[in-house]
Amino acid sequence: MGASVGDTAAMGYDWISFTTDYGLADGFPAVCEGVIARIAPHARVLHVTHAVPAQDIRRGAAVLAQAVPYLPTAVHLAVVDPGVGTARRPVAVVTDNGVLVGPDNGLLVPAADVLGGATAAYELTEFHLEPVSATFHGRDVFAPAAAHLAAGTPADRLGPPVDPADLVRPPRPVTRAEPGSLITEVLGVDGFGNVQLAATGLDAEPGSRVHAQVGSRSLEAVVGRTFADAPRGEAVVLVDSAGHVAVAINGGSAARELDARSGERAVLLVARASPPP
Fold first, then answer.
1. 271 neighbors 210 (Cβ within 8 angstroms)
2. Domains of the chain, CATH where assigned
3. Beta strand 265-273 with 176-178: parallel, antiparallel or unpaired?
4. Are 219 and 258 in contact (CB under 8 A)?
5. What is the dihedral sign for C-alpha 73, 75, 81, 86?
6. Does the keyword Cytoplasm apply (predicted)?
7. pLDDT in tens, 106-115
8. How far apart are CA 61 and CA 52, in angstroms?
9. Which residues contact 244 (CB under 8 A, 6 or more apart)?
10. What is the spatial distance between Cα 148 and Cα 154, in angstroms, rounded to a whole number?
11. Per-residue pLDDT for 277 more than 70?
C-alpha cells in the first residue's frame, strides 16, 4: 500500500513482516501478533522467520536484508534483542519503501540500505503497552509501534528523531580474495545445513576443486551451479539465491560437517578444474 513515505504515513500499511529469534516452542510470536491484531486488525502479518539463532544479531540482519526486496511495501518488525531492557534504543527506521521497527543494535540498517536507505529515524517513546516489561519489548514496545504505523500513525509521532547516521551498523564481514584462495566469514546457516558466506563471488571455474575450511574443520568440494553438481553425499561450492558463496552437501548438511557458526572465519582454497575425461 502506498508508493511513498508521505502517502503510507497517512494511509498506513496492509502488511507487517515479522522476524525474530523467538522460536516456536513458546507463545511469544503469537502474543506479538495478538497485540498487532488489537491495534491494526486490517494488517496481515507475514512471518519471515522466528528461527534466527538466539541472540545472533548479524544472522538476523542478513535474513531480513535478503528477504525485504521480495516482500510487499510494509512495516518490517524485527526483534533479535540480546540487549532488551538496557540503554539500547528502540527505533523506527523510515525508508522510501517501508519502515523497519526494532532495536537499534545493527539488526535494521542492512535492510534499510536494501530498501533505498534510511530517510529518517525515531526513538520509540510513545504507544507502549503499560507496564513495559524489561524482558519483552517485542510485545510492549515494538509490536505496538509496528501496529500503529500500519494503522496510519505517522512515524514522527512515535518519538523524538534520531539521526540516521547514528544508527548502529553490524560489523562489516571480512572478505579478501587472493590468487587461489578466498578468505571470508560465515554469514549463517539455513535449515538445510547450507553454509552461507559473506563473499559474493568466487574466481573459480565449474568443476574446480575447493578445500573449504571453517574454524578448525574442513571438507573437499567441487565448484558448481546447483546442489546436484556434486554426487549425493559430497560437497559443492556455489552462489546461492541471495548471491552469496555457499558451501553445501548434496543430500546432507555442510553446517554439521563444518560445525559452522555465524561470524567464523572461512577459507576456500581453489585448485584448477579437472580436465575432461
1. yes
2. 5-166 (3.40.50.10790), 176-273 (2.40.30.90)
3. unpaired
4. yes
5. positive
6. no
7. 999 999 999 9
8. 10
9. 187, 196, 197, 198, 199, 200
10. 8
11. no
Asked if 161 and 198 touch (Cβ cutoff 8 Å), the reply is no
Query: What is the C-alpha to C-alpha distance for residues 23 and 52, in angstroms, rounded to an integer?
Result: 8
- Cell digits for 276? 575432461
107, three cell numbers: 539488526
Look up residue 11 and give its amino acid. M
Q: Tell me the β-bridge partners of 210.
A: 221, 270
Cut 0.70: pTM above it: yes
Contact 129, 32 (CB under 8 A): no
Strands 265-273 vs 208-214: parallel, antiparallel or unpaired: antiparallel
Residue 218 CA to residue 211 CA, distance in Å, equals 7
Longest dimension (CA), the chain: 71
Distance CA 263, CA 270 (A): 22
Overall average pLDDT of the 49-68 stretch: 96
The candidate with the shortest Cα–Cα distance to 267, out of 219, 205, 233, 208, is 219
Give the separation between CA 90 and CA 102, rounded to whole angstroms: 6
